[in-house]
Design goal:
Number of domains: 2
Number of strands: 12
Shape: elongated
Distance between the termini: 120 Å
Helix content: 10-25%
């Protein structure tokens, strides 16, 4: 008798013969289900939240990358605006040979870097541009490392004079010439660019001490013939 009662707990209740079950009770026993439209709205809402999260993550990473860059702009006495953008140097994204130190010359991506004294650079020049009377020219900035570090392009000397790290002019909208002095100490180097008929070309890039000394005393190039 006890076994029969225990067993009856797990047997679905069946009404006696002749008694029809109440449909409303059967419906209440079934789990409630959301309408198809409501479930679709919930799915769409979750997708929108996920999309917003992805967008926020993308914006955060983009902002972080931009924040790591350092940009400086200045206007030369000749009314040309120069903009220099530097970014952190990530060694894992480049091929380094004999850096730092070693009996061989330091090479980055198979080329001699300017601005270092054999050590791994901290920054690289991402871009240099020159703007004059509505025209903007991109100046070749390859192989230039530890170049600017956010310094002022002009400093006061003890004798009362001024010293500029960048010079140049545009004779017109299509023809310009520029010079720059970059880095310092053993890593100091210079560069020169010419814009001829609207085409920009770097005409000098060297760390030769005599050329560096010449540029320091002649940061403004001669007038273009």
């Amino acid at each position: 008798m006890i076994q029969s009662r225990a067993h009856s707990r797990f047997v679905r209740f069946r009404p006696p013969r002749g008694v029809r079950p109440n449909p409303s009770i059967e419906r209440r026993r079934q789990p409630a289900s959301l309408p198809v439209a409501s479930r679709s709205c919930q799915t769409l809402d979750r997708m929108r939240r996920a999309a917003r999260i992805v967008a926020l993550c993308f914006l955060a990473s983009s902002f972080s990358a931009r924040a790591a860059e350092e940009s400086v702009s200045f206007t030369l006495p000749s009314a040309v605006t120069i903009r220099i953008i530097e970014a952190p140097f990530v060694a894992s994204k480049h091929q380094l040979k004999a850096c730092p130190g070693g009996p061989e010359a330091c090479l980055i991506d198979g080329r001699l870097p300017l601005g270092t004294d054999g050590e791994v650079p901290k920054t690289y020049v991402k871009s240099i541009s020159a703007s004059f009377k509505g025209r903007t020219y991109a100046l070749d900035a390859s192989q230039m490392f530890n170049a600017w570090a956010g310094r002022a392009f002009e400093v006061k000397l003890r004798d009362g004079g001024n010293f500029r790290y960048f010079g140049g002019r545009c004779e017109d909208r299509l023809n310009c010439i520029f010079r720059g002095l970059f880095s310092d100490g053993a890593g100091a180097f210079v560069a020169e660019w010419k814009v001829v008929n609207g085409t920009s070309q770097r005409t000098a890039l060297t760390s030769s001490s005599d050329v560096v000394a010449f540029f320091m005393n002649n940061i403004d190039p001669p007038v273009i013939d």
